[in-house]
Amino acid sequence: MSAYPTLPSDLIPADGRFGCGPSKVRPAQLDAIADGAAIIGTSHRQPAVKDLVGNVREGLSALFNIPEGYEIVLSLGGATAFWDAATFGLIENKSAHLSFGEFSGKFAKASKQAPWLDAPQVVEAEPGTAPQPSQLDGTDADVVAWAHNETSTGAMVPVTRPNTEALVLIDATSGAGGLPVEMAQADVYYFSPQKCFASDGGLWLAAMSPAAIERIAKIKESGRFIPAFLDLQTAVDNSRKNQTYNTPAVATLLMLANQVEWMNDNGGLDGMVARTTANAEALYGWADNHAHATPFVAEPASRSLVVGTIDFDESIDAAELAKALRENGVLDIEPYRKLGRNQLRIGMFPAIDEADITKLTSAVDYLLEQGVGAK
Predict the structure, then answer these.
(1) 194 among the known binding-site residues?
(2) 352 membership: H or E segment, kind and range
(3) 84 belongs to an annotated ligand binding site
């Protein structure tokens, strides 16, 4: 028997998955795995799987309306592997970073630990705030980097080239597909598919500019040691053949391809941003008018459209609220573990419906009325 109240049926979201990665998967994506069962267990060097990779690359090119000369590149390992790959294959001598949370800080740390690179320039901002790209104006670094969306805190930073000749690398892991972007403002816009694209992890994908591809080739030709798994030139060469260097998870690609098709069929990136904006307005509007809750990111323009972080005052135990909601099928809204705040963190990705965000907020109010979380 549950220790928590049972939510009335009209307050239970149609889909209770609000995690910030892995995120809600649409049923059609799972159907796509069954429909594509004939190619699971077949060679990724043969046309069937290569055509699937090609569909993903073409679909992403359309979704992001990539400029002429840009290419969609993919490989295995997720964004964490990409940070290491970038230290080997994209940063020539020095990088500069905006660090404003766990994940934007991790790339800066990887660059700092690479003994063949100069110490990076790191502009730090407190969690819950968002630095601006202009803070990197005039840097002598050859790569500048930040996260489009800081998944740990729910703060977003625009993709705008600073006044520098450096390549612009954007970690779009949780933002790609749900935040607006003009791709010409970035040289490498990289992401994993388990957030807005509602697939499984294990891949990284990137829209790369001609300048970035040229840099990769230059460093490769310099003779720098690059581990085979992290060789970006190998990733570029294989992507042009619609394949990956290592064997990919075909089920992940099937889910990803279906999501990209759904996105393009439902208004493209503009349509997806409209969905996340509606979700964000519902969540932040509720919190702004709440007696016990407030958005963690104080500046409205910096509040993420895809990851909402809501603080509760000292009279409420947010962890108890999360437990009660989990007992009622509302999942994965606990705060980022290392942030240690009395808050809920709520995914608002394109697959999530505004009606479910509204039901979630009403469910929180109901539980508070029942005394759940009261200290």
Answers:
(1) yes
(2) none
(3) no
